[in-house]
Model the fold of this input.
Amino acid sequence: MAELYQTQRAMRNIRRAALQRGVIGILDIGTSKIACLVLRFDGTGTFRETDGVGPMAGQVNFRVIGAASTRSRGMRRGQIDVMAETERAIRTVVAAAQKVAGVRVDHVIACLSGGRPASYGLAGEITLEAGRVHDHDVASVLAACDAPDFGRGREVLHAQPVNFAVDNRSGLGDPRDHVGNRLACDMHVLTVDGDVIGNLVQCIRRCDLELAGVASASYASARASLVEDEQELGAACIDFGGGGTGVSIFVKKHMIFADNVNIGGQLVTQDIAQGLRVPLPVAERLKTLNGGVEATGRDDRDMLDTGTGSGEWDADRRPVSRADLIGIMRPRVEEILEGVREVLDAAGFDSMPSQQIVLTGGGSQIPGLDGLAARILGPNIRCGRPLRIDGLAHQFTDPGFSSAVGLALFAAHPQDEWWDFEMPAHSYPTRSLRRAYRWFRNNW
Amino acid sequence: MPDVIDHRPNRQPPSQPKRDPAPSRLQYRLERMWLRPIWRRAVRVGVPAFLVAMTAGLWLSDPDRRALLTDGVQQIMTKVQSREEFQVRIMTVEGASPVVDKALRAMLPVDLPASSFDIDLTALRLQVMQLDVIESIDLRIKPGGILSAVVKEREPAILWRHARGIEILDKTGHRVASVTARDVRPDLPLIAGEGADLAVPEALALIDAAGPILPRVRGLVRRGERRWDLVLDHGQRIMLPAQGALIAMEAAIALDRAQDMLGRDIAVVDLRNPSRPVMRLGIDARNTIRQARGEPILGPDGKVIQEDDRKGG
Done:
């Protein structure tokens, strides 16, 4: 844990250095597309009123000066499958975004959607010697959280203090200077596979970029697409991605649960390709342009052009109605939503005070999805789009870019994590600094 | 999808190279390097500057070409400078005495007509200002090829006799010229003594104040570089204080007016202490007093003449 603490602290320092230089890159590596935003931090924090972007969620001190997205390559289920291909895709998108921005990007913040995320709720408790909570008490109560065995090769991606309690007063956001005898905290820890995150780090390093932070994709998209009240009162954000569907639950502005359903939009495309016997690009085009989940009588007469370009009349002019396409898509989408339902049940979402569910991600643009989701997940459903941020072009404001926008918010205002607090001095191992330095030199 | 599909047996397979949209690693690195401002500046400014400098250097490395270049530049310069428009033909001098006029013309480093580029007006002005007699000079080249010098000479105000001769000073004490004898300028008052030239304005004021006794004034003597002695004829002398000499002088003239002080046999009027003027009587006056008292009279050296001396003499 101490090593992780040091590396995360080092990433925070890199982020601070990048903010001082004023330019930071956002790299959203998804299964179907890779997006890169280049942010310029003015440092002034002055609010510019530009078409409807308000000073809502602390996005005022930066603006997007370059954005690009490209088809993802070498990714499978939110993880890096072929490293060289992913590296090429990252190079493509970074070069394009740099060209738009006209500045060089050295530090990026990336997000990770795969890697089998697992959430843990930890609790810690200490007695206060001074009778009052000081800074070091907060750090020591976080260090006192008893961590379960995460399993082999698991890395902590997020460790956020969710709740503090002093004596019997619970629900404190900031316990400092509270008077009491006992300080307890709840911490939410999200772990992922260490190899997956190591591959991501390696891939980004091979593109001459420095990693200034890593976040979970479901966390990032929830930060962008849940409005402030939903984050405060409690809501679940479902991010329909290409390789997987991310689920995250927020309450009191903190993420308390995150998981991933391993079925995504690419599986729907595969089904269409198999069912209609068309190539994958054609299936993708059919899904995007003509897809849906609710068939009507008109859809039987709505014939689609499956132009596969094979040169055979039978294959090219095969009549496919839109109802056929919907008939293939709907069971898969239902399966995804069932998976989400299971995850939400496992997380105990039913006992949450608010049952708000927000659908986002590229897959949430399927027409009629909100009606289907309302039948499976619950009545309070809305399709969420990411928060408007300054300077972002219109084509990057659709739901598929909510995790990129969320990462931009994360870069501007990261929530407090365990490594933002000074570690209590007695829990430093003797050689930890040197080991952290060596790890840093070897791996970054 | 193409509208017409080529089914001919000898058709060429469509040659569409599947291009990778990703930049190669080298291209990616070069692009990123190019986005560095310092690198961009180096390439945009440094490389052309280096190329120009290198070409010039290579061309100039041959001494023949260098000589050719300098000769060409020199030729063009002389051709331009010797144009009719730049020629200076005459020199006019205003406000100078004939001697100074002659000296100025002699000081001109080039023979007229000459190009105005060859006449360095600043250096010429500095050189002319070395002459003591010239207070200021306005040198300019006027259109029409005229070198105009408007000279203002220093006006002689006083003569200063010192150990090395006699000099004419102007009213600020600056040297104007030297003279061999005092008779050359009998109209000017005379001062003497070390450091007298530093107090010329005071001396002039004293001489102005000396109005009624001016015909008797021989001159002013600077004493110890701090005060003046007014020397009159018949060996009379008025010793003035260092501070308030003018007031003391007016007091002495008032005494003279009221009591004809200077007409009497008084050798020295000592006004060095303004509150207590002291007078030293001449030797005849003292002898007259002594005779009246029946005391032995004094000789010209101020000593008592002994009876036996008189007998012997």
